[in-house]
Design brief:
83 residues; mainly alpha; 4 helices; 76% helix; transmembrane; membrane; transmembrane helix
């Protein structure tokens, strides 16, 4: 019967770094995959909450701002008259 020490000595030198890398990638996927699964569900939910509680006008402003279509607002735009 082969002892455990003999098995450890017979392993190629690249085996331990390969296993460490495999463990790291598995752990990072375990942490990141739930976010990828939850975000498509949370996006419409937060949009509904925004439309229901904040108001459609602000949701439109947020959407335009995130796309980059919103020009910087001036006092004239906000008040309808020059200051």
């Amino acid at each position: 019967m082969i002892s455990g020490i003999a098995l450890l000595g017979a392993a190629p030198p690249q085996l331990l770094p390969a296993r460490e890398l495999m463990a790291f990638t598995l752990a990072s996927h375990i942490l990141l995959v739930p976010f990828g699964a939850a975000l498509p569900f949370l996006t419409p939910l937060m949009r509904y909450r925004g439309l229901r509680f904040i108001g459609p006008a602000l949701v439109l402003l947020y959407r335009l701002d995130t796309r980059g279509d919103l020009e910087p607002l001036t006092d004239t735009d906000l008040r309808g008259r020059a200051r």
